[in-house]
Amino acid sequence: AANPGTTRADGVRHAAAALVARGTPDARLLIVAGGGILDAEEGGLRQERATFPAVFRLVSAEHRRAWEAVRDGPLAWTCVCTGDIVPGERTGAYRVLADRMPEGGRRISLEDLAGFLLEELAAGRFVRRRVGLAY
């Protein structure tokens, strides 16, 4: 697997710092990351499992650094974690679970991901949480 660099974590860190510096009390930051940074049933993170696909290990570590960049800070953040993001349509027929991937969840359409992001931005159901999103 190719090294994904640090663009994700650096971008999240810079966006968070800009929002904090601006002092906007109702600022929200929504992040999209892979499902590897969600909790595993047996404890720890899914990316720490021996069965976690090697091809995703480096990018999942970068997603973890992006989440860690905001995790303990003052912002109202939400980290939306998915499996494969595929073309499709907006169906609204996805499942959502705080801190874990819905059972058997492996993919989400780009359109449903975008719809969920807009809904979460308005509703704020998962503030300062990771959330698994999948069919």
Task: Provide a brief overview of the structure.
By secondary structure, the chain is α/β, with parallel strands linked by helices. The chain has helices at 7-22, 57-71, 110-123; strands spanning 28-34, 76-82, 84-86, 95-98, 107-109, 129-134.
Could you tell me the mean pLDDT? 95
For the biggest sheet, the summary is: 4 strands, mixed
Choose one word for the global shape: globular
Number of helices: 3
Distance between the termini: 26 Å
Oligomer: single chain
Q: Percent of residues in helical segments?
A: 25-40%
Work out the strand percent.
15-25%
Please compute the radius of gyration using only Cα atoms: 15 Å
Q: Total number of β-strand segments?
A: 6
Spans of at least 5 consecutive residues whose pLDDT stays below 50 are none
Explain how this protein is built:
This protein has 135 residues and is α/β, with parallel strands linked by helices. The chain has 3 helices and 6 strands, in the order αβαββββαβ. It has a 4-stranded mixed β-sheet, with helices on both faces. The protein has a two-stranded parallel sheet with strand order 3-5. The longest helix has 16 residues, at 7-22. The two termini are 26 Å apart.
How would you describe this structure in keywords?
alpha/beta; 135 residues; two-stranded parallel sheet; globular
SSE topology:
Elements: H1 7-22, E1 28-34, H2 57-71, E2 76-82, E3 84-86, E4 95-98, E5 107-109, H3 110-123, E6 129-134
Helix pairs in contact: 1-2
